[in-house]
Amino acid sequence: MRVPILARSLRQISRQMADGTLRSRDLVEASLARHDPALNAYVTYTPDLARKQAAAADAAFACGSLLGGLQGVPVSFKDLYGVAGLPTFAGTPRALPEVWTRDAAMVQTLRHQLGVIVGKTNSVEFAFGGLGTSRHHPVPWNPADRATHRAPGGSSSGAGVSVVEGTALVAFGTDTGGSVRIPASLTGCFGLKTTLGRWSTSGIVPLSPSFDTPGILTRSADDAAFAFEQLDPGRVPDLDPNTPLRIGVAEPFFWAGTDPGIAERLHEALRLVEVSGARLTDQTLPGCDEVYRIYHQGGIVSAELYAFLRPSLPDWLETLDPRVRRRMDDGRALEAWEYLRRKARYAELGAAAAQVLTGYDAIISPTVPIAPPPVAILDDPDTYSRLNLAMLRNTCVVSFLGLCAVNIPAGLDAQGLPVGLQLIGAPHTEPRLLAVARHIEAILAKADVWHPHPQNR
Questions:
Q1: Partner residues linked to 246 by β-bridges
Q2: pLDDT tier, 202 (very low <50, low <70, confident <90, very high otherwise)
Q3: Integer CA distances (angstroms), 151 to 130, 161, 172, in order
Q4: Helix (H, G, I), strand (E, B) or coil at 341
Q5: What is the CB neighbour count within 10 angstroms for residue 138?
Q6: Is the pTM here over 0.90, yes or no?
Q7: 371: left (phi over 0), alpha (psi -120 to 50) or beta
Q8: 8 Å CB contact between 303 and 332
Q9: Would you say 107 and 203 are in contact if contact means Cβ atoms under 8 Å apart?
Q10: Separation CA 207–CA 428 (nearest Å)
Q11: Active site residues
């Protein structure tokens, strides 16, 4: 039986386009046919442009020009990335100045391979929020629940939706405190948060240069591993089947307040990983409580956002979503000596965490401790603040400690909503982390817990 185009892995799709048995035009048409405007994935959707780019990719294939594994592949970019010819709103009510419409470095990398840009996905205003809501643009609808409008996760709020919808096989997002992993967890796709500085943020509207990282969301760990190798000089290894994985189970900090249905699902995933031969031990990451306590006080991220907006986009301060404004204002009064002290303390704690991680292939935790809440309840400021902090808790500490991490879908909770498992790695260990993620994903698929491609769900 012939496998539908979008049921194939990204690796298979790329190989088939290279050998001429699949055309980018057909792939792109199949992906565009999955677009559901009611899901609000995109702030700028460009199907006609995508078709032209697919034609260019096919022309290159026809004359033997193989420019990279993402040639002809439909992708989306979060609307913080500059994309030439398209406006950048960064979640605000009006387009940013022209300087933010130049191709970001990651966009240039994609264009050099003749990847197909389907559009720019919705973002929380200036990426400052973990729930994925907006006062200026329609909030993307989490596809996991077609009856109730639930939070899609933020701040890359449309990115996960574009992947689950099927219009993008790779969605480029950004992750400062969890903005790739959270939407990946809430919508049920794979998400990679890279180490600070590994991939360029040039041409991306900043939130906090101390922590901003580009990342990708995909349908599966293998899709992410393949895309990573097209974007990065690193190569994802095959694991030695004779060497058991060394997995640390994160301390109670990461599990406190976790919804029972999420905890049950993740403990079942841990059991399956252990039965497969992995060695699991409890492990504490130094400084998580302290890092999270400092984050509660408002600090580096808030101060750096204000430091960007005040001189560069002062007119945009007047139209800020009050929820974004409130969080930014928490850090405006941060004194320089305290800002520097906190950065030094984060670096110190991060070095200790990285040292602990040298003894493990990864540390596992819940990605997000709560299920995606209905968007309607988030109009209440206190509810929004409480749930936003809960949403960001497990991901932000990983970011502030300078680590890399992924989200792996680990099944569904009692409500039928996706549950995410966070794998945490030492800085610059993305290739190994992706290999471990691919292995764990295969274990979960074999146990019929989760299948990464939509046709199997």
A1: 279
A2: very high
A3: 9, 11, 19
A4: helix
A5: 14
A6: yes
A7: beta
A8: yes
A9: yes
A10: 22
A11: 78, 155, 179
* Residue range 389-401, pLDDT digits in tens: 999 999 999 999 9
What are 282's strand-pairing partners? 249
Distance of CA 23 to the CA centre of its chain: 28
Two tokens, residue 196: 């600070």
**SS3 assignment, position 285:** coil
Burial of 51 (0-12, 13-18, 19+ CB in 10 A): middle
Looking at the structure of the chain, the number of domains it has is 1
With residue 3 as reference, give the H or E element that holds it: none
Q: Where are the alpha helices (DSSP H) in 358-424?
A: 381-400
**Closest Cα partner for 65 from 8, 17, 9?**
17
Q: Which of these, 88, 36, 15, 432, lies nearest to 239 by C-alpha position?
A: 432
Average pLDDT, rounded, for the chain: 96
Amino acid type, 213: T
In the numeric block, which tokens belong to residue 240? 């030695």
* C-alpha 279, offset from chain centre: 28
Domain CATH number, residue 58: 3.90.1300.10
Two tokens at 52? 């032209």
Both structure tokens of 6: 């979008």
Pairing relation of β-strands 213-218 and 170-175?
A: antiparallel
HSE, CB side, 13 Å, CA atoms: give it for residue 149.
13
Interval 432-457: pLDDT, tens: 999 999 999 999 999 999 988 654 34
Buried b (16+ CB within 10 A) or exposed e, 189-217: bbbbbbbbebbebebbbbbbebbbbbbbb
- The span from the CA of 80 to the CA of 328, in Å, is 18
Report the distance separating Cα 120 and Cα 89, nearest Å: 10
Tokens of 38: 């009611």
Is 365 within 8 Å of 284 (Cβ atoms)?
no
Give dist(CA 370, CA 101) in Å, integer: 36
* Domain extent at residue 343: 5-456
